[in-house]
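Write out this protein's structure.
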Amino acid sequence: MTRRVLLIGVAVAGLAVAGAGMTSVLMDLPQDAVPVQDPVGDALREANRAPVQTPSTPSSQAPAPPAPGSPSTVPTAAPGAPVVIVTPEAEIAAVQEEAPPEAAAEAPKVEAAPVATPGRRQRRPVAVIHAIDKVTAESMLFEVEVGGRPVRFNKTLIFSVRACEVSAPDELTEDAIAYLEVGVQPRGIAVPTEARQIFKGWMFASSPAISGLQHPIYDAWVVGCKA
């Protein structure tokens, strides 16, 4: 009886270890990318397709000419009266002579503004990626969990996200920043090989042409971070 109990315990322990190992292997395997809805982008594309109607502007009316015989507003000097020309230097000298010495006020003292503490960027658990296959013209907007399972795009491109954060409120530019690792691993081969890394670093949503993935076949960049 004791021997049977020991055998059952050993079998249960073996199944638990095998289950933990299988879970670890499944977490390392990449999952296929799933497109996400983009209602804002669809609305903008529909607005760009619609013809733009320019409102008609009323024609500007030319000002009416002055009535004949009306007096002119430009003063004219009387004939024979002397013309006095006042230069800017003479006006400045006259003002300085008339100003009393008490008018010169002391320069106000400028107090140094207190140094504000910079805001802290907020971390997000999900990164939104946009990838394009330049050979087949396939484009997809999908999500990748930070620190979660890698996501495979178009059977060969694998994305892993290590961090995703948004800019602080006191920053001048509203931006989303993500740290990505991108690799290429052919799918469907008999012996799976380790993915060949083609990108590792930070991507900025505000400058995809500078920080995005530039590859002969693929282009990819971060779009934003989701809570």
